Amino acid sequence: MTDLYARHRAVLPEWLALYYKDPLEITHGEGRHVWDADGRKYLDFFGGILTTMTAHALPEVTKAVAEQAGRIIHSSTLYLNRLMVELAERMAQLSGIPDARVFFTTSGTEANDTALLLATTYRRTNQILAMRNSYHGRSFSAVGITGNRSWSPTSLSPLQTLYVHGGVRTRGPFAHLSDAAFISACVEDLKDLLGHTRPPAALIAEPIQGVGGFTSPPDGLYAAFRDVLWERGILWISDEVQTGWGRTGDHFWGWQAHGQSGPPDILTFAKGIGNGMSIGGVVARAEIMNCLDANSISTFGGTQITMAAGLANLGYLLEHDLQGNARRVGGLLIERLRAVAAGLPVVREVRGRGLMIGVELVRPGTDKADPDAASAVLEAARAEGLLLGKGGGHNTSVLRIAPPLTLTVAEAEEGAAILARALGSVH
Which residues of the chain fall below pLDDT 70? Predict the structure, then answer.
């Protein structure tokens, strides 16, 4: 055990998760690579849990942060803040929500908390619909709507939560159906559920479930859900903390794969927009955002230094068409991994979209999750210089791949080759 690891264990909570048997200290990064305290270089395929969205040490962002730090770092929302207004204007325009208002927070957890506050206040009910296998944060209210046992430490909650079918396409009672039949069955299940309860405030859903292992329904499911919800006045909250900013390649937001019936009423975002700086937020129609009848502020949400990072990062992403790069390079990477998986019984499925890819592992010859195999692959990949994530609602048996969106074809090929060898070494 290293000295730093021993000190970590002595002062930090036991439930604070660490990767690897010998935990890694990352000291610096550049582009799609990071270095550890021993000077070893790694290709980063997880980007600080999808937070280093463009690149490590991106000059445009580091310059903006340094220059802003030399002027003023923070003043709070009690004062006018030009950078916050400018980023809010960009967010409102990009969100697709009409007459949008934007509130900045410091994390996705806090953004989802705010969305729940808005929805329950606007609708005057504390009942929420959430998806099975979902994850929305670590706060008391966010845990209360999380449908993933691994990340839900308590059943106590200020909310009454009902869980809906549909977030996982290839497991559960409807997995054997065609896409159209799957959507129809989930819609009928939703209607039946709503027939047995008081009208909920909102449905909150990740277009692609992040911690749940990058699972998703067929395109159009949430549009079909929206039609049902709209008839009853129930709001739709799209949790875009992991799917936002073009990561899926096909769309800028995950909800746009389900946009046939219009945009969500509320959208939450975080992670990648700050490229490592702490930015989260909520976009909602003005009538919903303005429904609170008491004062509120955000001490650190929208602070100048994070807004400077967000503006610089968003500008870089749009100017360099990183959404297009995610589509092209991500498509190539998925093809390579599916070709590798075809000969490996430990791999149940390679799924995903753009640079948001999940590789689900099972015990060969069964459909049972194999979390030990996932941990072993993480260790083997690290040994060859590749960092991965993991997750999944079925016993944390999914490898999560989400590199910075500037990933090159050569880096994708390199990572796929390392992962192929790591997977082959497990069984």
Answer: 151, 156, 427
What pLDDT sits at residue 142? Answer: 78
Q: How far apart are CA 53 and CA 277, in angstroms?
A: 11
pTM for the complete prediction? Answer: 0.94
Alpha-carbon span 182 to 175, nearest angstrom: 7
Spatial contact of 46 and 387, defined as CB atoms under 8 Å apart? yes
| Contact of 288 with 273, CB cutoff 8 Å | no
Structure tokens at 64: 């903006």
Please tell me whether residue 414 adopts helix, strand or coil conformation.
helix
Contact between 167 and 215 (Cβ < 8 Å): yes
| Nearest in space to 297 (alpha carbons), one of 79, 85, 125, 135 | 79
Angle at 100 between CA 294 and CA 98, to 5 degrees: 135
- Evaluate whether 289 touches 131 at the Cβ level (below 8 Å): no
Query: Which tokens hold the place of 404?
Result: 């910075």
How does DSSP assign 21-36, residue by residue?
A: SS---EEEEEBTEEEE
Q: How far is CA 344 from the centre of its chain?
A: 28
